[in-house]
Fold this protein.
Amino acid sequence: MEFSPNNNIVQLCLQGMNMQESGNTAEATTICTKAWNDATNNFEKFLAAWFIARLQHNVADKRTWLQTALELVLSINSIAANSALPTLYSAIATCYQEEGDEHNAQKMYELSTAHHNTITDNGPFYHGTKADLHIGDFLTPGSRSNYQPDLVMNHIYFTAMANGAGLAAALAKGDGAERVYIVQPTDSFENDPNVTDKKFPGNLTRSYRTHAPLKIIGELTDWQQQTQQDIQKWREKLATNNGDIIN
């Protein structure tokens, strides 16, 4: 399953998180429990289990839900889900440590470290823009951010999710046509820290960045187009986002 912000379970989890952050733990628990009960596959159940774990006051209960999330991730064995492994192992380790079980805490910390920054994603990769480019051209860092115009970006960003690149194209500056290019990294790359381990564990959107150029090797024409209403919602969300871009 590909992660989508429009997925019903994802929406329920986000509602639960917002309720928790506003101090309404009881309502958050109701919403996240509904997400768990309504989940139709292991990916959705993993997301719900993660958020239910966040709501637990008892450390043993929290660890149980985290271990449930971990088991579900291991059963899925997808690139997106596996990106959550370092976070899950680390969270379970913290629970063991709070319980006084240093042996299992150390084992979990070691597993977290072993999976940290291990990217096994081989693409294909995409970059969304309104620029008119050609096969063989290179995309390089140094452009101004689409979201903070005064910020010159030190990296070039890309994703393994075509629809994510399509959204980036829709939100990009300029009056040109929305384009999604198939790109090839020319050197090493890392998880995008602006989305990794933020609202959800890991890098579920398979978003990456690199200091090195991206070579355009093709163009995609059949990604999911955003409605004007959805684009406006995203623009409003970005306009009210007070967080700094990790550059």
